[in-house]
Design goal:
This protein is an alpha/beta fold and 238 residues long. Helices cover 42% and strands 16% of the residues. The strands form two sheets. It has a seven-stranded mixed beta sheet, with helices on both faces. A two-stranded parallel sheet has the order 6-9.
């Protein structure tokens, strides 16, 4: 199953769907936060032609983390998928990498599609944005101790047996920090996490959903995770 959160992506969802179908027949679940541009209606149109496509309709825009947690709960209840992929609908995550990530799940419980594991593999970003992303990952690694080159990657895959942990693991972040907290939760559980190199391409249409609140949450989440780990280990801060 490929999970695809959407908000105002009507210009991208059909192109994304077609790109996925060129490389695989995996099931697709679009998670739409009541997009006012008709994204949900476009997904329903696609689903009428392809039984492997479904729509999880949500009542309001509540952030990436809450959308994914809702979808995780639905998958856990259904119990029908042994491998789950997470992708953006804006075509920045290229479906051509799905096969390599699927193969990597034979060895790892979670796989990150990494932009930085083999140098820098990002197209059409400004040097400012690239530096922000790169050094954000340095910051996360230093604060949390995680060893991964791309802790903020939204292109990832995991085995279905991680769903109970992701649903009940106390993950709080609602914005893009959800990706960091999810990875930290899985890493701290002791399962094997790997990275597969990808080429990330800036979105062709639509706009980014990063707000000041989301940015602030992203800054504060790594130290929160570090402090939570200290208290769980029974070491009180003096």
């Amino acid at each position: 199953m490929i999970l695809v959160p959407t908000y105002n992506e009507v210009s991208n969802v059909e192109l994304f769907y077609e790109a996925v179908r060129e490389v695989c027949d995996f099931d697709l679940m679009f998670i739409d936060d009541a997009s006012p541009d008709g994204t949900g209606d476009k997904v329903k149109e696609i689903a009428r032609k392809d039984r492997g496509v479904r729509l999880l309709e949500r009542s309001a825009k509540e952030g990436l983390g809450r959308a994914y947690r809702h979808a995780f709960s639905v998958l856990l209840e259904s119990g029908g998928w042994d491998r789950v992929f997470m992708m953006d609908a804006d075509l920045s995550h290229r479906p051509i990498h799905l096969d390599a990530m699927d193969e990597a799940l034979d060895e790892y419980s979670m796989v990150l599609g990494s932009r930085y594991v083999q140098g820098v593999s990002v197209l059409n970003w400004s040097i400012i944005r690239l530096n922000l992303s790169y050094f954000a990952n340095v910051y996360i690694r230093v604060v949390t101790g995680m060893p991964f080159t791309d802790c903020t990657s939204g292109f990832r895959a995991f085995r279905g047996d991680l769903l109970p942990l992701l649903v009940s693991g106390g993950i709080r972040a609602s914005g893009y920090a959800f990706l960091v907290e999810t990875l930290h939760t899985v890493w701290k559980s002791g399962v094997a996490v790997g990275e597969v190199p990808i080429v990330f391409v800036e979105r062709r249409s639509g706009t980014s959903k990063v707000s000041a609140r989301v940015f602030a949450e992203s800054l504060l989440t790594p130290p929160r995770l570090k402090l939570t780990g200290i208290f769980r280990n029974g070491n009180k801060i003096q």
